[in-house]
Amino acid sequence: MTRRDHRSHEPDYLLLFSSHLPDDSMPKPRAAGFNGGLIVPLPESRIVT
Known about the structure:
The chain is of the alpha+beta class.
């Protein structure tokens, strides 16, 4: 799958496993061009849009 293919099949949400550092991790997908929601499962589940 090429990068272009990946962009055309972008998921609606990404699951962030680095929930102990969400403030450091959340800007990275946005900077890469991701426009969907981010799911932070711990310590309390939340969805960031």
